[in-house]
């Protein structure tokens, strides 16, 4: 890989040990992928996890004197103040969350604590080269916004923030961004949850860059977020195209880069049913809680839940995770008060993959509209059924499966 003088000086330690460490990691990754050069990263999002290995890595860079050249937004850990108040967090976990915040602040990160930075505060522009980690974020940036990012890890994105560069390979290059698999969607595809199910058919789609034919032009932002998140979780997908909808796919021909697809895959109602059976278990008993907001719910989704609950009181706890920006909007418009009066709780800065604050749910049975949420929470003993949000809320209101 050919480096500029500035990049070589960084690698040689002229700008300190921390920057040199980050550059060493990035050049090794770049060489692994046969990158020819490093290019500037205009924006960065780091999927901070507030878990031991992640904080250890960030701490090592901070202690070696690294400061970010591009201030990154960061993923949620959990709202320490809120969960400590409930008595749910032990001293060791509390110390780790505090230290994570301190380390990332020292590095110069923007402590946004949201997994949907592309909606608020860190919105990539068309064709901009960025370095985004987090499953929904990298796919959304590539597909819906037309920016260019690898599917970064939290570590590689943090290195990009520190050096200000990324190795150029993969979907950063124009020639690698065309669709390779034509996916003819014959299944009904109107709701956000149907798009979630479509994302779960990633195994049948089988890798490459899918071009979806047959998706309604009325698809919502939230539906696109759900599709990208599940495609990435279930199939390590960099990006997708929807002709007439995503910016690099004015029509089918452009989406496929003027070439014939490597293969054509047809997705039917039966495929969605199979995905449902394989990934979405039905509840074994009545749900004791509902967990929504993985990825973080938008204002529109919070309003939808409030409308479903309005005038009634829930028999199960309802947690909705969102960004600080959307929580603030919900507070200003009175939505949060309406939600609370029905028993719903709106939480900012928090991720579902945090045993430190959700450990008290271990052994309980809940419901969610996010397969990703169910996957993560079962790793610390919380079982969740996955259904569309209307069903989750109906179960919570009735206090039974219905
Ligand atoms: Fe967001 Fe955590 Fe889910 S980062 S997407 S709430 S696993």
Describe the structure.
The chain is an alpha/beta fold and 402 residues long. It has 18 helices and 13 strands. The strands form four sheets. Strands 11-10-9-12-13 form a five-stranded parallel β-sheet, with helices on both faces. Strands 3-2-4 form a three-stranded parallel β-sheet. A three-stranded parallel β-sheet has the order 7-6-8. Strand 12, helix 17 and strand 13 form a beta-alpha-beta unit. It is globular, with a radius of gyration of 21 Å. It starts with a helix and ends with a helix. The model has no long low-confidence stretch (mean pLDDT 96). FE3-S4 cluster binds at residues 75-76, 115, 136, 294-296, 321, 351-353, 372-373, 376.
Number of strands: 13
- Arithmetic mean pLDDT: 96
Structural class: alpha/beta
Distance between the termini: 60 Å
Strand content: 5-15%
Morphology call: globular
Order of strands in the sheet with most strands: 11-10-9-12-13
Give a list of the ligands.
FE3-S4 cluster
Q: List low-confidence stretches.
A: none
- Which percent range fits the helix content? 40-55%
Main beta sheet, described? 5 strands, parallel
Number of helices: 18
> How much is the radius of gyration in Å?
21 Å
């Amino acid at each position: 890989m050919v480096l500029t003088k500035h990049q070589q000086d960084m690698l040689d330690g002229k700008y300190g040990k921390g920057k040199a460490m980050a550059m060493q990691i990035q050049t090794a990754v770049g060489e692994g992928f046969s990158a020819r050069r490093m290019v500037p990263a205009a924006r960065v999002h780091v999927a901070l996890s507030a878990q031991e290995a992640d904080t250890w890595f960030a701490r090592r860079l901070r202690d070696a004197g690294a400061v970010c050249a591009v201030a990154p937004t960061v993923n949620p850990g959990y709202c320490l103040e809120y969960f400590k108040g409930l008595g749910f967090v032990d001293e060791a976990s509390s110390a780790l969350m505090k230290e994570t915040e301190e380390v990332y602040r020292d590095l110069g990160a923007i402590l946004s604590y949201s997994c949907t930075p592309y909606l608020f505060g860190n919105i990539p522009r068309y064709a901009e080269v960025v370095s985004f980690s987090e499953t929904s974020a990298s796919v959304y940036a590539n597909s819906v916004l037309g920016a260019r990012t690898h599917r970064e890890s939290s570590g590689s994105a943090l290195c990009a923030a520190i050096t200000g560069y990324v190795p150029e390979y993969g979907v950063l290059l124009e020639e690698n961004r065309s669709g390779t698999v034509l996916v003819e969607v014959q299944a009904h595809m109107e709701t956000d949850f149907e798009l979630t199910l479509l994302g779960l058919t990633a195994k049948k789609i089988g890798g490459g860059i899918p071009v979806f034919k047959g998706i309604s032009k009325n698809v919502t932002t939230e539906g696109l977020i759900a599709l990208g998140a599940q495609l990435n979780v279930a199939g390590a997908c960099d990006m997708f195209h929807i002709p007439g909808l995503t910016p690099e796919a004015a029509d089918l021909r452009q989406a496929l880069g003027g070439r014939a697809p490597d293969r054509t895959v047809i997705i039917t109602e039966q495929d969605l049913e199979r995905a449902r059976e394989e990934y979405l278990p039905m509840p074994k008993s009545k749900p004791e809680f509902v967990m929504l907001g993985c990825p973080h719910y938008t204002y529109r989704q919070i309003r939808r839940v409030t409308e479903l609950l309005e005038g009634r009181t829930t028999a199960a706890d309802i947690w909705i995770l969102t960004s600080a920006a959307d929580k603030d909007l919900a507070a200003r418009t009175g939505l949060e008060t309406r939600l609370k009066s029905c028993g719903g709780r709106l939480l900012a800065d928090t991720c579902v993959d945090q045993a430190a604050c959700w450990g008290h749910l271990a052994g309980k049975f809940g419901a969610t509209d996010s397969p990703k949420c169910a996957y993560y929470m079962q790793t610390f003993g919380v079982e969740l059924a996955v259904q569309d949000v209307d069903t989750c809320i109906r179960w919570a209101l009735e206090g039974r499966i219905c």
